[in-house]
Each structure stands twice: as C-alpha cells, then as structure tokens.
Amino acid sequence: MWFLLGVGFCFRWVLGIKPCVYAARAEHPSVVSVFPNRGHKLHTTRSWEFLGMEKDGRVRPDSIWAKARYGDGVIIGNLDTGVWPEAGSFSDDGMGPVPARWRGVCHDQSSSDDAQVRCNRSVLGARYFNKGYAATVGRAGAAASPSPASTRDSDGHGTHTLSTAAGRFVPGANLFGYGNGTAKGGAPGARVAAYKVCWRPVNGSECFDADIIAAFDAAIHDGVDVLSVSLGGAPTEYFRDGVAIGSFHAVRNGVTVVSSAGNSGPGAGTVSNTAPWLVTVGASTMDREFPAYLVLGNKKQMKGQSLSPVPLPANKHYRLISSVEAKAEDATVAQAQVCIEGSLDKKKVRGKIVVCMRGKNARVEKGEAVHRAGGVGLVLANDEATGNEMIADAHVLPATHITYSDGVALLAYLNSTRSASGYITLPNTALETKPAPFMAAFSSQGPNTVTPQILKPDITAPGVSILAAFTGLAGPTGLTFDSRRVLFNSESGTSMSCPHVAGIAGLLKALHPDWSPAAIKSAIMTTARVQDNTRRPMSNSSFLRATPFAYGAGHVQPNRAADPGLVYDTNATDYLHFLCALGYNSTVIGTFMGGPRACPATPRRPEDLNYPSVTVPHLPASGEPRTVTRRVRNVGAAPAAYDVRVRAPRGVSVTVRPSRLEFAAAGEEKEFAVTFRARAGRFAPGEYVFGQMVWSDGAGRRRHRVRSPVVVRVAGRRTGKTGVPVA
Q1: Are residues 250 and 296 in the same domain?
Q2: Which of 46, 235, 712, 714 is the most exposed place for a label (fewest CB within 10 A)?
Q3: What is the extent of the structural domain holding 30?
Q4: Where is the Peptidase S8/S53 domain (predicted)?
C-alpha cells in the first residue's frame, strides 16, 4: 500500500492504482513524494523525585517545576492509542480558560454516545486518524477495531504516556497498593491533546505512516508546543519514514518532537527514530523496586521483582519445576523453555511453581500459560543478554522476575535434587535502591545505522516500572484474558521514558518560550549526567560500563537543563545542508521542506550539523586529520567566558580551536572546530571509542558545564611498529 505526499503536506490516497499509474501520479507537480505506507510499533509516583524535581513531596524554589510554573501555558500532544479522559490525571479542576491560540477540535465532542471522548480545559483536543490503518487491513478490519471512530483509548498505552508527560497531581495513586503516592506528569500545569494513530495490531504493527504524518500536521495546525511520540519502526532512509517526515514538519514550525528509541536492545545498531531533528530517548531504571523473594527449600533467597497481588499461603513450599522438564509432548524444547501458551504438560505443572526463561513472548503471557496449565506460581529468569534487569509486572498469579545469575543458580538447584521446592513472597515497595539508574536491557542502542554521523539515542530517562494513568477498557497486562481493571498501571519501555523527556521539554518551553526545538534538545543533552547514585559510571543491565550508544548524552537532569549556559542551535538552513549531504535531490528534499529546494554548491558534511554530540564514524587510521565544526549560543549571563576540556577517546588525539570562547552579550554565537587524529596504536576493525568535550565558565555550584559526548570510529588499515598491517 502506498500514498502520495503533496505540497503543503496534504495526502492523496493511492488505492487500487496499477503500478504503471504510480509513475504518472508521481510526476504530478503537486506531488513531492511517493513511498510505502509502513507500519510502526508502539514502543509516575517516583520518577520525578528521582530526577530531582521534588524531595519528599516538597518542590524547592530552584526546581524547574517552580521556575516554569509547572508548564502553565504550554500544550503537549502525543501520537498514540488515544486517551481515557475520565482519568484523574486529566481533571480540569482549577484550570483557567482554554488558551486563545488553541485551534484544535475534539472529534467526539458532538457525539451523544456516552462512550465517546469529551474534551475539557485539560484535554483540549482529541483526534483520530485511521485511513492508513484502514487501507492496510481493509475497511472491514478497521470497523472491527475497538473504538474505530473514536479517540477513546482501549489499549492504555496512550493514556499512560500522555499522563506521564503532563498529568495533573493525583493523590493516592497505586497499583494493587504498590507504589502508593501522588501521581503527576512532567508538566502538570500544561494542557494536553491526544492524536490517536495506533489501533489493533496488524502483522505486528499498530500505527501507519499515512496516519502518523496526518496527525503531525494536525498538531501543527492546532498549536501544540511539544509532541511525545512513543512509537517507531525499523530504521530506514528518512524520506521513507513517516515519523521522520512528520516530525521535520513539526520542528520547522517550532514544535519539539520527542520520540522513543525502541525496545529492541541490547544489540548494537537497534535504535530507531534516528533523524537528527528528533529527541530520541532511551530507557533506564530509577531507585524504586518492587521486590518479591523466591525462598528455596534449601533456605536460600533470591530477590526478584513483581506487582502480582496474588499471594501464596505463607511459609508453604511448593514443588519447583523447570518449564523444559514440564514440556508438553507435542511442544518443542524451545517453546517450553519460554512458556509459550500450550507448551506445558498440565499433569506435570499442576500445583507447582514453574521456572520459565525470558524471551520471545510477553512476560505476562508466560504467567498466563503457567496459570492455564494448572501451575500455582511463576519464576521468570533472565537470559544472559538481559542480565540484571528485573521488571515488575502485574501477573495473574504469584510471580517473581529474577536476574540471569540467580537463574543459573536456581537451575543448578533444580538439577541437584528431585525434591526442589520454594515459595514466592508478596511484593513490597523499596525506595532509594542502588545502583540507579542503569540502562534497561530492552532499550535500543546505537550506532545510528541511517546516519552514523549523528549519535542516537540522544538522552535516557526512567522507563522501567513507571506508574501512570490507564484505560478502563483493558486489564493491567493488556491481554485479553485479564479481566481486572485499574486506574493506574505500571509499564516499562522506551515508550515510558519518552514522555518523561516530553514533559521536561514542555517545562523548558514555558520557561524559555523563544527557544527553538534544537535549543531545547541541546539544553536537555548538554546538562545530562553519566553517573549513577553510587557516583560510579552508569552501567548496563549486566552491570558493565555503559556507553553513549546506550544512554546518548546521559541521564536527563531537568533542573540543570533550565540553565544550560550555552546551546547548540540548528535552523532550517542547517537541516537543508544535512539533507543535501545525504545525497537527497531537490524533489526528495521537498518532502521535508514543503516543496523542491536546490542544494548549495558545496553542502556541509553530515557530521558538521550543529549537534550537541560529536560523532566521527570514519577517522582514517593513517593519522590523517578530520575536523568538524560547531557553534554555540550564550543563553546565560553576559559577559561570559568558557574554556574547553576534552577527555579524548582511546587512541585518538583531539584538538579544539579556539579553546576559549568569550561572549560579550546574551544571544551571541561563537564557532569552534574540533580536529581528530588517530594515534599510533591498534584498533579493532570498525571499533568505536568514546570521550567527552566540556565547555565550562568557572568553578563553584553556579558554574555551567556544557558537556558533549564524543564518539569516534577508526576505519581502514594502518601499519604498526613492526610493519605488520593492523586493523
């Protein structure tokens, strides 16, 4: 299925047209692009305190919440599964009138059906877009989708993400009594708008390009300031990517677009939403856990995590069995290992706690498979790739999720005795856990496979066990067998970290209304931290040192982002140079710019885009230098002087000229050049090495530290001291 993108970003559906006609349609002067209608996947009470915005419920005067008046005056939208407007997070009690600049609509506003969405002074607008979805599944399939002509959220994902970005304060929020506290969004004083673009999955995709781009353009028209986009597809050229095209339109119109990095980690090159005009967010943990212990018959205890409200009788041990040992006769070992539905023998499982491995199917689906087979409990053990990442899920039976090392020890115990037994304790809520944050194993990682000159992800934020508002039409597991209903739910994914940053972007827009989307992104990136709460470098889920390919510039620090000192700003001309450097012709560039644009005679290289990070993916091993340029704008006090300090990547020399920048006035810009050379030594083929560059204006608590990650890949072959070629 294809669609045409016309000048002015309007859409003309191409359904049932023969291939020979596509070319004719593509030659029409009002059509600037033809590309497939690709599908995309959908990618709290504690997190804001963890980010330093409050302490024990008290907001200090230096908090960005206080400075930005909680985002008052800002409008935050999301592209997702819709909204559950009755949630307390979207109450409009005490809110002033609808902003005069708002131009949006509530698609369901005139309906007499009580099931339809009603907007208010908090939820300003609600629109749905399903033509792309309908073209993919057929009209009958679209009609059969839940709430096919409504922005009402039947899934919960959209309500969760929107309330995380800008939900209002709701005391007493919890899930089955766990995580009890006051729920709130990042910008609780902001207004919100829901753009429903995601529906029942079709071939693994819920959201389609035509609907996504239409929603972006509607949000631009409506007057949204920030868009949270917790969805994405496989990385592809930007002119074939609906999120890249739609977000470019938004950024050109002053809308900051925040997107999720994807949940395909921890493998290299898995990050999605790689366009440089997006703020791409990875997911990390915070200092709250929901520990549920597995107590073995040999008295050993293993700490896992869970949000299951279902207890086992206290101190009563049950037989433990591995899922492979419990394999049904007609199932494969691989199916039984991960507890695929129907892969377990009911006679072997009945009355026992089953140990399942992580992977393939959803974590909560494993619990349901055990439950249907007659099991009384689930122990979910990580594989090596997921390491120490434990996720608290609202399982339908007693359950706990343990680490890889504990899983290995548990399987050894099972193999050591014929009478292995244990029981699972009810979870509780633990705060100020350490280390935190560390990267979630599922969080997609760099390098950027589309434009390796741009580091992705850009930033990381809490994305594990995030408690936020939920729909009334689905259970907390989101699966059809779950008949439970909750007001708040705990979910994990980069879909959850994305709206954290969107909320922060909304606060920055309220505090600095004249800042561009690029300036807002720069402030978020250059003020991030790369240490956990033990003051050690952030780690991955195996507790090995993480790199910028996992966390980008680091873990977001909202209060520092309010006063970054310097910003790396980017304008339309910069992006034009970038697109031209990718080899895009004027017609393709018109897809982004709203019409054909001629490229400069000598466009700048992609790595020269004025980005808050620096990546050189092809540094010659011969020692030949490579130089990139950047410019920064003073957004702090004046006069000001900044000096640079560089921690060079291993085996690389880095020189910055000039090494001191002096600003006579606020708003003044200065340019500098960074030169890289490979030094004598050995480099593995295609090896990436990491460093940092920091501009600082002095010492003390009030100083600014404008930090940029530096990523270098040494390419080619060189000769070592022995004369033998080395990689």
Answers
A1: no
A2: 46
A3: 2-36
A4: 71-539
